[in-house]
């Protein structure tokens, strides 16, 4: 039959168009058929089989039946597994039962069966026979642990006595005992004894007792003292330890030792010759001009260190050091005068320094390369005038100018000619670490604080020799050009 429209049974008066093969008024399960001729069953529409021949068409049929409520359509669109719930606006959601604190849930989505809710296992940290059980606010057990002796007050329920508890109980008992009035006769105070039995004599002396050294067994056996004033020995005055000097063998003397008197000093004697070999003292002087010395008895105004036969090689004066002889090291070419972070300010000398230049201690002298000669010539052009920033800060415009160049600029020039500046001895770089302040036992500063830093320096004699060779090369080139021009 030809296609026709069939009115839907709803209040909107809507219709659905069906093909010519459709049977108007057909009933599901009786005479409504699929395109293949089989009768449409109600179960195939409600729960269509995905892979069946008729079920494969069933989803298409459901999409065309517009009278299915929208909330049912939303419910059909939910994916996954779980429970469904609807809010007040008609929206559908999928939910599962989740476990809370102390709660365990089995089959939370309800797919395999009804969900089961139970209390979760709690940790059991207890051991032994004495345990402590903890409960939450709702009376549920939350765990166990090993009980301690502080969990219960002492008594029948708690017989665990620690050393601290025993000491505390003993202290309370002793305090209570002491507070009693004469609890035991054998405990007699000093005041009670003096009142009951006053002392009648001391060492056979009665009345106002005056004790001497012999009365208390303190009489020296060898000093034979006749008077306390001056502590003057009666015999062997020259050999006595009280004859004006202190003799001590071994051990140490603690605390400060002070010597008083005119020309007071420490004198160290040679035991074999019985003569002074080291003399440390205050020297001779006035009340305002005290002189200290080491191994010196007639120096004034300085501390003098003397060598053999009082040669007086070194003196420490108020404004510096004086040397009476050459100043040299114990080892050759081993130590420096000053460091990169502790430099001398100025060296005053009658003549210049003498630097070793022995051919026996050097490699053969090689000619400078073309790059080195070019760098030397350019360095000569970098020489100019400058002022030290420290002096500008101290003297302002009065600070004097000096002639030279900076190490940083010399490094740039050397590198511009492809040369390693630090492979040449006239360029130096030093760095030092921080030193922390160190205090002595009396709080005095043993080592002052020093910040970390670094500094660039020249070996100026080598730098000037390098520049001079470059200038000589340039002068030779000029002379050759003049000679070639017939000049």
Automatic annotation (TrEMBL):
<dbReference type="InterPro" id="IPR036388">
    <property type="entry name" value="WH-like_DNA-bd_sf"/>
</dbReference>
<feature type="domain" description="Peptidase S74">
    <location>
        <begin position="357"/>
        <end position="482"/>
    </location>
</feature>
<dbReference type="InterPro" id="IPR044914">
    <property type="entry name" value="Endosialidase_C_dom_sf"/>
</dbReference>
<dbReference type="InterPro" id="IPR030392">
    <property type="entry name" value="S74_ICA"/>
</dbReference>
<dbReference type="Pfam" id="PF13884">
    <property type="entry name" value="Peptidase_S74"/>
</dbReference>
<protein>
    <recommendedName>
        <fullName>Peptidase S74 domain-containing protein</fullName>
    </recommendedName>
</protein>
